[in-house]
Design a protein that fits this description.
Largest sheet: 8 strands, mixed
Strand content: 25-35%
Shape: globular
CATH class: Alpha Beta
Radius of gyration: 14 Å
CATH architecture: 3-Layer(aba) Sandwich
Number of helices: 6
Structural class: alpha/beta
CATH topology: Rossmann fold
Number of strands: 10
Number of domains: 1
Strand order of the largest sheet: 3-4-2-5-6-7-8-10
């Protein structure tokens, strides 16, 4: 979180909105898209982000209803379509996603370079993001060209 006074809560709210909006511009493999139902956004640690994201539960994302789950590092991630994590758990959780079609998001520095898909970056009071398009394609996730154009960096 940012050390700018009064910005921590706003930052959590903004990042939750980014995460929600990312789901609108990502397409999962056909078997997931056709199943519809719930789109599980799982939060590993990061309580402030869980609280903010949980306020978005039930919203529509194309044919899905948004469901928010809080995970522990020992919990399986295979029921998640999105996993957001922050802090030291990043390096431990990434290998769990393997070849699963899970959109991985974090604000941990170096996340995209370590194999994560979307890295949130705070620059002053502005939030930007980097995308590891190769990693997303490896697990059959399609990221809209509109989202790619907004990214600070695409790999």
């Amino acid at each position: 979180m940012s050390s700018i006074p009064g910005f921590a809560e706003e930052e959590a709210r903004l990042k939750a909105a980014f995460i929600y909006n990312f789901t609108k511009y990502v397409t999962w493999p056909q078997y997931i898209e056709q199943a519809g139902g719930a789109l599980h956004v799982c939060v590993l640690g990061a309580d402030a982000y869980f609280d903010e994201l949980n306020q978005l539960a039930g919203r529509d994302v194309r044919s899905f209803k948004l469901e928010i789950k809080q995970l522990k590092l020992s919990d399986p991630v295979d029921s998640c379509q999105v996993v957001y994590t922050s802090g030291a758990s990043v390096r431990k959780f990434l290998p769990q996603t393997g070849t699963l079609p899970i959109l991985t998001i974090s604000d941990e520095p170096g996340f995209v370079d370590a194999g994560g898909m979307i890295g949130l970056v705070t620059e002053g009071r502005r939030i930007r993001f980097d995308i590891n398009l190769g990693r997303a394609r490896d697990v059959q996730l399609q990221i809209s060209s509109r989202l790619l154009q907004l990214a600070r960096r695409v790999e």
